[in-house]
Design a protein that fits this description.
Layout lengths: L1 H6 L4 H8 L8 H6 L2 H10 L13 H14 L1 H15 L11 H31 L5 E2 L3 E2 L8 H36 L3 H6 L4
Antiparallel strand pairs: 1-2
Helix pairs in contact: 4-8, 7-8
Amino acid sequence: MLLFSMQAHYSPEIQHEQFSFILHPYRTSFTLAHGDYFYCRMGNRFFQGNFLSYEADGSFKGDVITLHKNVATPIIFLLVIRLFWRYTHPAPQLPDSMSPLMKTLAHLGHLGLYFMLIAIPITGCLFSWSVGKPVPVLYLFEIPALVDKNPELLAIVKPVHTYLSWFAGAMVVGHVLAALKHHFIDKDGVLRSMTQQGK
């Protein structure tokens, strides 16, 4: 009803430009898959940072580190599914109301998120292996170590993993703010299309 009442105030040409994007919502599978990054970032950021320093003693900290890795490692497998899904299901076109610059920034932002989805788990595994620790998955099995204990490698991947995590968190916040801008300021239906189920 809200959509029809909004359309009544616009000419057919403006209706097509403003609301055509709503007619092509993301599929349900993508709506669910889109949460994997937030699961990776927000669900695990609580267990990261200095709190997870391997140099610190304490069984509780060790338990938290183990929990962090068991929860984070499934992202590697979800990423493979996500990339295959994206390859076979191209994203809907952005609304015509967006400027070329905003469309370019949107594409760059999504590429950045995909890069983080790849780089953070990889550096996390290298971080764990370089200190001689395993990389478990949901307490079911361990990913075979590809490198031996290596202090030199640790000196590189530890800060990279940490800084990537903080930067990715900032990107997620920007992603959310952009979605809210589309919904409340631009009113172009982008956010609505992600909450509707496709046919």
